[in-house]
Specification:
This protein is an alpha/beta fold. Helices cover 32% and strands 18% of the residues. It contains 10 helices and 12 strands. The chain has helices spanning 10-18, 22-31, 37-42, 73-77, 82-87, 145-155, 164-172, 188-196, 211-221, 248-256, and strands at 5-7, 49-51, 68-69, 91-93, 98-104, 110-117, 130-132, 157-161, 178-180, 200-204, 227-229, 259-260. The chain has a 5-stranded antiparallel β-sheet, with no helix packed on it. The protein has a 5-stranded mixed β-sheet with strand order 9-8-10-11-12. A hairpin with a 5-residue loop joins strand 5 and strand 6 (110-117). Helix 1 (10-18) crosses helix 2 (22-31). The longest helix has 11 residues, at 145-155. The two termini are 28 Å apart. Residues 1-6 and 33-52 have low confidence and may be disordered.
Length: 263
């Protein structure tokens, strides 16, 4: 958010997020889907309080110079092209045996670095698969938004994945309107940024996420925008697979059969 605003009720929130008048907000709500108080109470920005600008500390760009640029051959085999890896500035930490993904906000500021271990026996030694090299004091990062914001607006659609690798893989397939949330939960800070895009939302959660969890995320969005969900109707994925993990043909089949959420 760019300013401090009093959000006292659902009408005020719609006025703020949509940039419309009180009358237009009333018409919007009346013509939209049913209001669910239980969902609204779950999200802090809907509660009576001031929405305040949050500040964070950014990393010095020179910090990246501690790690050399790198193209991960295993990722190329997964269809994440060298060109896309270079675009997202993939690096390597040979000492810790991790591939590094710089994490940037929508304004391209360096927020942290996410490291993925490439130790084959990491589970045996209880080594975390992913770590952040600096703490995220609060997580409002929509990975890929710095690169893809204009494409999202042009296509009038944002595709949301859980992982950063899924965004890079999707772009390798020509889908440059994607972001990732780094988890299976859209928090209040992310929600505000997603709604401000003012586009349709396509949710692509990993297989195995409980329907109750998926519905919880849908409920946060569907009052304000069109929501679609990509589901494995044909049982083409394995547990914990992203919808894009099995290659372009399966991804296109799943994406093209996405279901629009109906109120």
């Amino acid at each position: 958010f760019t300013d401090t605003v009093d959000v006292n009720d659902i009408i005020g929130l719609v006025m703020y997020l949509k940039g419309i008048s009180f009358k237009d907000a009333i018409n919007y709500i009346n013509s939209d889907i049913e209001y669910k108080k239980s969902t609204i109470d779950e999200i802090s920005i809907f509660k009576k309080k001031e929405v305040e600008v949050k500040t964070r500390k950014y990393l010095d760009e020179n910090y990246l110079l501690n790690f050399k640029s790198y193209v991960v051959e295993d990722w190329i085999k997964e269809d994440i092209t060298a060109e896309i890896q270079n675009k997202y500035d993939i690096r390597i930490d040979e000492k810790s045996e991790r591939y590094l993904i710089p994490i940037r906000d929508e304004n391209n500021n360096l927020v942290s670095i996410k490291g993925r271990t490439y130790k084959k026996d990491y589970k045996i030694f209880d080594i975390p698969k992913y770590i952040y090299y600096t703490k995220l004091h609060y997580n409002d990062i929509l990975f890929g938004l710095n690169h893809n914001k204009e494409n999202i607006k042009k296509r009038k659609e944002v595709i949301i994945f859980e992982s950063e690798k899924s965004v890079m893989k999707a772009e390798s397939y020509g889908f440059n309107n994607c972001i990732s949330i780094g988890m299976a939960h859209i928090n209040a800070d992310m929600l505000g940024k997603i709604l401000q895009l003012n586009v349709d939302v396509v949710l692509c959660f990993d297989k195995g996420l409980k329907q109750k969890q998926i519905q919880s995320q849908i409920d946060k969005l569907k009052m304000f925008t069109n929501v679609y969900i990509v589901e494995d109707k044909y049982n083409l994925l394995e547990n914990k697979d992203s919808p894009i993990d099995k290659g372009v043909d399966i991804w296109l089949k799943l994406y093209n059969s996405k279901r629009k959420v109906v109120s």
